[in-house]
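Mods, move this if it's the wrong board.
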Amino acid sequence: MKTEIITAEVPSPYGPLSVHEQEGAIIAIDWETPQGHQTSPLLEETTAQLEAYFDGKLKEFDLPLHPGGDDFQQSVCKLISEIPYGETTTYGAIADKLDNYGQPVGRALQPAWVG
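Not the wrong board. Structure tokens:
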């Protein structure tokens, strides 16, 4: 049985982010407003790393990540984690690498609990 998900709101230059932790790993980051603010050592470290990233002082994260999902969702998460600092890509470019289409790539990035 999985432990509860705890969530912290983290400010960003693009609006507040919600960072979700479960069983000692970050499982998702999204734009949804959390139902209250929780904390843990991992969420505090994640907040510090995100702040350093947005300030241009950090280029690679060192956090335990465990995004959920099926094999396709895992392959999408792996590819987006390989995008170098300062570069961008599109769902279509990721889809091409997976021999798929852009729309499924976008859906694969939606947290499992979002309907």
